[in-house]
Amino acid sequence: MAELPEAGFSDQFRITNGKKFSLKKYSTDPDVEPDKKIAQTRLQEYVESIAERQNVLYADNRWSLLLIFQAMDAAGKDSTIKNLLSGVNPQGCEVYSFKRPSAEELGHDFLWRTSK
What are the DSSP calls for 18-84, one per residue? Predict the structure, then answer.
């Protein structure tokens, strides 16, 4: 199985000590502009790696992967999903769209809806 490429650009967004993490201490605006050729190459490597991992999970039929994309409207969730999961076999996927939480859902943590 291929190794995931080194993060490089994404290192500045990685949380290494969750217990001491505070979002207020970090800027959400990246310090550098990524090189588009490098980003495109890295995206292709990620897509291939994700497709390989999906085949292994699907063949084993014991584990699954839950991806949650949460952001404001027009934040790029759809295009991120489209690009990152372009190499995934759709037969091995289930996609659910969640709208505004109901009163019942607000009484639970945000992952509660995924198991309902």
Answer: GGG--GGGS-SS-SSPPPHHHHHHHHHHHHHHHHHHHHHHHHH-S----------TTSSHHHHHHHH
pLDDT of 113: 78
Residue 39: partners with Cβ closer than 8 Å, 6 or more residues away: 9
Q: Is residue 1 part of a domain?
A: no
The DSSP output letter for 100 is S
CA distance 83 to 43: 8
Structure tokens, 52: 């390989």
Q: Residue 43: which domain range?
A: 8-115
The answer to pTM > 0.85 is no
